[in-house]
Design goal:
Length: 177
Amino acid sequence: MTLEDKRIAMLVGPGFEDLEFWAVYMRIKEEGAQIDVVGKEAGVEYTGKSGGLTAETEVAAEEVDPAAVDAVLVPGGWTPDKIRRDQSVLDLVRDVYEDDKIVGMICHAGLVGISAGIVEGSDATGSLGIKDDLVNAGATWVDEPAFRDDNIVWGRVVEDIPDYCRVLVDALADQPA
């Protein structure tokens, strides 16, 4: 278990992409990390965009101490467009990024990175639906399944979850405790 000393904040909100949340959650948990499910407020159950899976927030973003986590992960789906409107979510993502900790974003999650002001100058990927948004925010589009650019781990889409998880686990394992 390579991540047993890691604490991860995993964001969730309305219409999250079921697999980009749950498959990533389970893979990181499998490596021994502690994961806190974070949203705009605690104790809210959200249904994934496919309508079958749910996830409940354990803590509100404004209550998460960025110094106490090793990474923040953002799934895609409709969640990024919803949670990017919450200043506490943006502050958490920006603070974790500025502390040189890992920020993982897959599919539409780059929208949160754009609103948090952390994508300018980075290589980026995600759903083709946000390619123009990323480029307009100053990122360089890269059409690859998953990769790490400094302390951001990028994943393209659902089909790329295995690649994204491999890069994510390696990035977290490389990070000093």
